[in-house]
Amino acid sequence: MGIKTGLKTLAGFAIWALAVSTPLSVPAAEEESLVTFKVMSPDLAIELAQATLEACREKDFQVAVAVVDRFGIVQVILRDQLAGAHTPETARRKAWTAVSFRTDTLSLGESTKAGNEASGIRFVTDVLMAGGGTPVMAGGSLVGGVGVSGAPSGESDDECANEGIEQVSDQLDF
Q1: pLDDT tens for residues 18-71?
Q2: Rounded to an integer, what distance in angstroms lies between the CA atom of residue 55 and that of residue 28?
Q3: Is residue 165 a contact partner of residue 134, using CB atoms and an 8 Å limit?
Q4: In 63, 81, 100, 149, which residue has its Cα 20 to 30 A from 134's Cα atom?
Q5: 106 with 160: CB under 8 angstroms?
């Protein structure tokens, strides 16, 4: 099969898959052309990063904290003075993973271990299945994610992330 033939077949399959998964008619009242959603403001993202960093400092951990929006785009990265050089990127990847899969990376680390059905997810570019990445929810909606790197364990990174979220939770309720 040539490249053009293969691409036509692939395109045809994609159209068929879309047709099979899409209702043929949607009542006009249900059809939405635009969607709305909430995201954290830059000020809240900074406050979350600072609260998370402080939660780790109280435990004598030198870490980096990354806060991403609901799309995984970095809003803030803070690195404590003695945190390792790898920690900002590791924190970013944890936050991105938490947002992408809409679950914390500590749980994802367990469910994607070798031999588990979901283990292939570990091969997605930028995914990091180590504790410390947590989605940030508000009113049942994903509004961002926080990632922590540099504490002695993924569990400790995760605790700091959750304590940081708890510190700003009053601003997440709507």
Answers
A1: 444 445 455 555 667 998 888 899 999 999 999 999 999 999 999 999 999 999
A2: 49
A3: yes
A4: 81
A5: no
